[in-house]
Design goal:
Strand content: under 5%
Distance between the termini: 38 Å
Length: 73
Amino acid sequence: MLKTVRPLLLPLMFGLMTLPAVAGDLEQPMKKIGFNYKQAVKADDAATMEKYINEMKAQLDVAKQKNMPAAKK
């Protein structure tokens, strides 16, 4: 099951990486998303993977609420 979920995680992560990482507001959520992605890929069971995926989603919501400077939009 984990091997079938990994291809689904890759587009999500690459999509998140294309967001401009603003040095201030978005840096921490983006780092946490990356960390949780790495942990999800390394997970041995579905429950652990789901925990990290849910944390990624939560950090994505945090990143969406941050203000991006007009020059970076």
